[in-house]
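Subgroup meeting minutes
Present: P.N., E.W., G.H.
Scribe: E.W.

1. P.N. recapped why we're keeping a running log of single-chain structure predictions: easier to compare across weeks, and new members can see raw inputs and outputs side by side.
2. G.H. added today's entry (171 aa).
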Amino acid sequence: MNAFFHQKPLCRPNSAFTLLEITLSLAVVVVVLGTAVPALTGWQSQTSLRDPSDRLGQMARQAMSMSDEEDRIFMVILDGERISLYRGESRNQSGEHPHLMECFILEKGARLKYRKLGEEKWATPKAYPWRFARGKLCEPLAIRFERGNGYLEQAFHPLTASVREENLYSP
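Output recorded in log:
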């Protein structure tokens, strides 16, 4: 019975991790980071494309709604680096100057392109006016936001000025 109590302990008091244990731990960390980093960069790329497209969609819906409420023409001006919302002339008072309501500038490295219904190629806008008038359809446009190799394409419905189709590519 005394022999049972005098056995050597299972672990040594000065024990440390072996080289194999450290190598396996590092391999697990590398695998986890290797899958997490690309997922995070793809998420950042999608966010940088979604933010301006959400703002444009909001402006288009606002222009459509306000044109009906105020019986005025509203315009979303598409430019290569900025998008602006203008209140135009009313039907009763012609000759009014457009009034800037809202404007936002695209982030550095982002590009905006548009395509009219039936066209094949994307064009870079140079102060292109997208008009909204009471009781009328807006022009059916497709908008493309590009950043790096990724892009977000959206086709807008002419009756509601909301996104009808969407295509996102984020490498």
